[in-house]
Specification:
The protein contains four helices and two strands; from the N terminus they run H-E-H-H-H-E. The chain is mostly helical. The protein has a single domain, classed as BH2638-like (Annexin V, domain 1, Orthogonal Bundle). It is globular. It starts with 12 loop residues before the first helix and ends with a strand. This is UPF0223 protein JOC95_003657. Belongs to the UPF0223 family. It holds the Pfam family UPF0223.
Length: 89
Amino acid sequence: MDFSYPISYDWTTDEIVDVIAFYEAVEQAYDKGIERDHLMSVYRRFKEIVPGKAEERNLANEYEELSGFSAYQTIKKAKSLESGDRVKM
């Protein structure tokens, strides 16, 4: 990708790696699809790092502006699917 991921400098290196894994999972949903359970797993880890709704919304909006991929719509679709399904945006 030709853009920088939105991150916080307050996060540890491991947290940054995990947040980037979430962003990459969203990209994979747009590219070729991703297993719902894997996406939800990386999203749960993202929520451990970013528990607040306002911060999550700000990061998601910044990510969408930079990448064109909607983390919100991807997670919304994943929540509507069953375990074992693939999320394809």
